[in-house]
Amino acid sequence: MPSATFWAVLAASSLACAITTLGILVISRYRSWAQENAVYFMSFGAGVLLTVSLMHLVPESLEMEEGAPMFWILGFVLLYLFNRFLHVHMPHELEDVDISVGVIPMLGILLHSLIDGVIYSVTFNVSIFTGALAAIGMILHEFPEGIITFVFLDRGGFDRRRAAIYAFLAAGLSTPLATLLSFPFIEAISDSFLGGGLAISAGALIYVGGSHLLPEVEECRKRYCFLVFLSGVLLGFLILLTRG
Fold first, then answer.
1. d(CA 116, CA 138)
2. CA-to-CA separations, 143 to 11, 35, 127, 147, 171, in angstroms, rounded
3. d(CA 158, CA 102)
4. Of 173, 178, 209, 180, nearest to 194 (Cα)?
5. Are 224 and 97 in contact (CB under 8 A)?
6. Cβ distance 159 to 104 under 8 Å?
7. 39 or 62: which carries more pLDDT confidence?
8. Scanning 104, 120, 182, 195, which has its CA 20 to 30 A from the CA of 224?
């Protein structure tokens, strides 16, 4: 019979998925408004991703794995190479899609969401209280993460239905799926292994934020773009505070 810890982990990761899905449903419902204001979402996303990556994922991964700098570069380079590969070998069904704007950010968020799922398993196995504290900060960013993922895909050329489905798979369902897959092997997951995963996730998100999102902020001529970017930075700090 599954333990109380298992049900707590499953409940927390499922709640994260539900909140992400809610964000996707809300933004897809108001798609025309989202398209008109997409640059603001890109600015906000840049602030959140870069702050969380540089202020949380980078130092925490280094604390868990002394070789983390190598994995930061690995995550950055892998996403860069995948971006170049897709531009050269574009699948036929993606010919009308802007890979840099849609697919690459989605992949970075997918990797981060998978790592989040493993973190749920690890922290709840320390204690349910520890897992609950960690989950507060993790769940806080799920709603905007769902919105941002949909906006990336929508701006990249995907139709509304595909953007919503892919955003759900990458940012929502991936978290409880990673939790379920990792939970039976939690005793074998070392701090070093998890630290390496966090470091790769950090490198990937830094690539997304620095190479694909910050240029949008710099080229934005609309009012308040910079303020929206700063609001993303502030949310990133709020997430860090809730994680203690």
1. 8
2. 17, 18, 26, 7, 10
3. 8
4. 178
5. no
6. no
7. 62
8. 104
